[in-house]
Amino acid sequence: MTGLTADSWALLIAATLNAGTVVALASLGLLINERSGVVNLGAEGMMLVAAIAGFATVVHTGSDWAGFAAGALAGAGMAALFGVLVIWLNTNQYATGLALSLFGAGLSAFAGIKYTQEKLPERPHFDIPVLSDIPFVGPAFFKHHPLVYIAIVLAIGMTWFLMRSRAGLVLRAVGESPESAHALGYRVRPIRLAAVMAGGALCGLAGAFISLSYTPLWVEGMVAGKGWIALALTTFATWRPARVLLGAYLFGGVTMLQFQMQGQGIQIASQWLTMLPYVATIVVLVLISRNPTWIRINMPASLGKPFHPGA
């Protein structure tokens, strides 16, 4: 790694931001879910359905923004289905989330059969005038898809929303004690459904970003576990948006590091290098889990628990 040039470092940083954006968007969505007290294990399935929805939309319309809208709507629609089941019908959140993930994987594989050989229109190139021309800094930070910057703005905005806005405080109250929020007159179930759908829309954006920008093609199972990583990052971040970004870029950096190591000719089996991002995530979670009190203090008190109004 010592042989890397300044240009190589710039490309590595740029690739890290791109890879991290996928996980950041999905993690921010799941964070909103969990702040309302709902655990959704279906991120992988939602991202896969959104990926094929976005890809198919761009193939037929030629519009990237229509593709991202389709991905967000697909994610929100699947999340709405999940929300009705767990919030109104009181099905088990964990089992329903796993079912959603499996359903999404199967649905995306079926819907994507005829799109495997399809190609997207020529991909647009983005850069911020003047800033993108600065040596090293420009290629590293100012030649990205707008969603890379939107993810950062979302994390900042979400921090303000949760900590400073009235709506955010109500959402947190629902996640901490839905019974108390209900007693104060707040409609817990619609609030939770809105949070679940907003989270699904962000997971949908993440899925569409994969098939339209990160790796612009459709391949069955192309999300490749990133939905599960996003789920783990919400715990890693102790349910704080800024820490989600940190964890997402850590994952992105380790993901890109494997390619750099291969390019440098380091003699390690490719399977070990592919495992690196996931092993790093597991190690971090193990280290965090050594202090259960810290997690308990930060975790929404009603996370994963059903709410029965009037019970």
From TrEMBL:
GO CC terms of this entry: plasma membrane
The keyword Transmembrane helix appears for this protein: yes
Main location group: membrane
InterPro entries in UniProt: ABC_transp_permease (IPR001851)
GO molecular function: transmembrane transporter activity
Membrane spanning residue stretches: 12-31, 38-59, 65-87, 94-113, 146-163, 193-212, 218-237, 244-262, 268-288
Membrane topology recorded in Swiss-Prot or TrEMBL: Multi-pass membrane protein
Subcellular location: Cell membrane
Keywords per UniProt: Cell membrane, Membrane, Transmembrane, Transmembrane helix
Source species, domain of life: Bacteria
Pfam families: BPD_transp_2
Protein name, as recorded: ABC transporter permease
Source organism per UniProt: Aquabacterium soli
Taxon lineage: Bacteria, Pseudomonadati, Pseudomonadota, Betaproteobacteria, Burkholderiales
